[in-house]
Amino acid sequence: MLGFVLQRLIQALLVIFVVSIVAFVMNRFAGDPVFLMLPPQATAADIAAARHSMGLDQPVLVQYGLYMLDLLRGNLGNSWTQTRPVLDLILERLPATLELAMFALILALLVGIPAALYAAVRPQALLARLSMTISILGISIPPFWLGISFILIFAVNLGWLPSSGRGATVDILGAPLSLFTLDGLIHLILPSLTLSLFNMGLILRLQYAGMREELAMDYVRYARARGVPMRTIALRHAFPNTLMQIVTFSSMILAQSIAFSVITETIFAWPGIGKLLIDAIGLNDRPLVMGYLIFVAVLFSLLSLLTDLVYAIIDPRVRLA
Amino acid sequence: MTAWHHRRIVLGALVISLVLGANCAARAEDTLVVGQAGDPLTLDPHANPGLVEASVMSNLFDTLIIFDKNMQIQSGLAVSWENPEPDRWIFHLRKGVKFHNGADLTASDVKYSIERVKNWKPYGGNTGVAFYLNGVDTVTALDPLTVEIRTKGPFGPMLRSLRAIYIVNKEYVEKLTAEKGVEVVGHAPMGTGAFKFVEWVPGDHVTMEGFDGWWAGKAGVERVVFRQIANNATRTAALLSGEIQIATELPPRDVQRVKDSPIANVTILEGMRTVNFRFDTVREKTPGVPGMPNPLRDLRVREAINYAIDTGTIIKVVMNGFASPAEQLAGHQHFGWSPNIKHLPYDPTMAKKLLAEAGFPHGFPLQVDSTNNRYVNDEQICLAVAQMLTKVEIKATCRARSKQIAFAEFNDKRILCCSMYIFSFVTPTADLAGNLETNLHTPTADGTYGASNGGDPSTPRYSNPEADKLIEAAGKETNEAKRQALLQRASETIMANYPLVPLHYQNDIYGILKKVAWTPKPDQYLTVSDATWR
Q: From B184, which residue of chain A is nearest by alpha-carbon distance?
């Protein structure tokens, strides 16, 4: 067990190393940041001084080496545009994104899984066919269009829900969360629905396929022959066997939503890390872009490690070695 | 009643309460909410010169002089001033001005603020705000309400420059910097402005509250929230649903919808930002015209290009009518704008004739450079310009790239980019002097002039000794009327030489709810101390 975790951590370090190289090289193609930092009146001396203070006058390999040395000490550096530590900036915005991603995932699971179970047990029922058709719609509608439509319908025309922004927050264990206030919850509805509709469809289809496969197994047939009701077979026997895949795609969806909820965050003016990244790219804030990508790599590695650990809990046959 | 019924009732109650709650949240009558595209990077008034920051902070801080809605100088924290000798200014501060923490405004706060700007070097170099104070030598507090500024020789733009310098409280900033570090100052702004800082959630909103002790009375609204809503469509939706009362940078396609709405109005203002295309008029070889000597050095060629570009069509088609034709370097709100400069008419025959005279009857290849994410419709403007040039047989192509890459190349003397490229200018001091000094004066080695090329005298974009003299004279002239005349003459001299093609002044479009009375200013500052409820 300990060996397994260690092995995975070493893998994670490798991933971070590769990501850091790719991010570093990509950043170098994004233009010279000095001219975006300084006003047009800057003199040659000002430009040289700025380049020096940002370390841009060093050879590329030295720049990279210095960055990695800092990284080893857990230091992601300071943002050039906001002159604050990159890690602080990310952590400050993280609760908003985490809460949106988690809420959207739970919403997607709560709708997707029961619908899939029903459709798998009664594939011919009208409701089942309907939900399978709608799921295709959910997968094929682009989220930016969906988000704008939701805003127009529910905020502008009906006036039921706020169009954008994050509601009032309360501090829970030091993190400002809006999930636990009424105002916050209302603000959460539209963005989380937008973020979850695609995943809802995806979960429905994946889970439907998994259940159909499971229900075609011999043990199901024997159970039916013995007169066990279909409901019991599906919920007690077949469903637990599909838990592994639920965990797998849930963790993938969560990671995806946290790292790349940029579109939803931009449309709904949600102050999360996705918007932080977009702004940083716009301002050519290299340390912030680098820090973000490395942070996401760590996040993905940790989530996949967690997924593997959960496998072992769900399925006693899985040995972590 | 079964359990199922119970659940239904609970669910119903939940839906009702959510709907009611939503309506409550939208109805906070005393709070003015402004939705803008950007979010400040810092609220330290001396750290960052960007428009978004300066604009939001204009509600928290005051300046010695202020501009009215026509960009004319009015007294701010200074009631009066005199200029007894050309290099010496005396400012008399207003009596009884209080900071938000109750402290009195004194001359030492003004001295501290000006010196803090001058010494602020986050990247080892100056920031944008510091450039406005290039000519300032020493600042002295003569008595608690009198400040003396001595300049390095006569310094023309002195008065207008002070518009860019927000006054902070010396004791407060020094203490905060020493105890918590300078970054914290940017998250706890405290000034003498109409509003007190309440909170800032980065990427989301800045909240302020009316300050009872404001020297100019009391703001018309109790509370103001500046929300960042980057997406244009969302910003319009938030306005139409009444969640925000003022929306900045309304996209042209939404103007009619907002006009049709029963609750909102559209305000369109001729903005101060010009969009131009600059020429490389000096170098013998220019990268955008390969394989031949630089044709843009010839005045006739530059004049021909001015004739060949139909700005009226660009405004109508590309800008949807939301721009006004430009004829010179900067808008009429700028000090130094000249009424004598006229835009050349669209005349392709004249253009062809001039090109033939200059020895290019069949034109020449020309690469036009532009950004594609900086100014309104910049890429489409560039494409339209290239097409119009093709009509007079200049084989023009448009290269539009992101501002991150394009700006770096425009300014980097090592790359020597661009023969004809998009160029725009606006300044919070509404003073043409800065534009002329940095962009159109022949570059000098020390960087005092022509710094926009990185200050390298070997790569000027424009050089005109006659204009240079006028610009320098204006810089040393402290009499406003004389200075204005000099700047106007410099402008006229330069424009007669066609170093650029002036296209248009961008319009600023605001959506404002009918229940709010507020007139925006041409400098795009969102100063809302004069906003009131109707």
A: A84
B373, B379, B380, B385 alpha-carbon torsion, rounded to 10°: 140
Better-predicted residue by pLDDT, A236 or A99: A99
Q: Which residues of B touch A48 (CB under 8 A)?
A: 125
Helices then strands, counting H and E runs in chain B, come out as 17, 19
Q: How far apart are CA A301 and CA B318, in angstroms?
A: 47
What DSSP line would sit under B339-362, residue for residue? TT--PPPP-HHHHHHHHHHTT-TT
In this structure, the strands spanning B195-201 and B205-210 are antiparallel
Name B121's bridge partners: none
> How many CB atoms sit inside 10 A of residue A48's CB?
17
**Residues, chain A:** 321
Specify the DSSP class assigned to residue B318: I
d(CA B63, CA A256): 47
- Each residue's pLDDT tens digit, B449-470: 877 655 565 566 788 999 999 9
Checking ipTM against 0.85, whether it exceeds it is no
Please give the model's pTM, rounded to 2 decimal places: 0.86
A309: which 2 tokens? 């650990």
Q: Which residues contact B480 (CB under 8 A, 6 or more apart)?
A: B159, B335
Which position has the token pair 């997968």?
A: A139
Q: Dihedral of the CA atoms A198, A203, A208, A210 (nearest 10)? A: 140
Alpha carbon separation from B418 to A205, B280, B461 (Å, rounded):
54, 7, 10
A88 touching B (Cβ < 8 Å) = no
The one-letter code for the residue type at B22 is A
Confidence label for B25 from pLDDT (cuts 50, 70 and 90): very low
Task: Among B404, B407, B414, pick the best mutation site for testing chain A contact (most A Cβ within 10 A).
Answer: B404
Token output for A253:
């969806």
Q: Please determine, for residue A220, whether its predicted confidence score (pLDDT) is greater than 50.
A: yes
Enumerate the residues of chain B whose CB falls inside 8 A of the CB of residue A266. Answer: 230-231
pLDDT digits (tens, 9 = 90+) for A7-51: 888 888 888 889 888 888 887 777 777 777 777 677 777 778 888
Residues facing residue A172 across a β-bridge: A175
Helices (H), B29-105: 51-57
DSSP A27-44: HHTS--THHHHS-TT--H
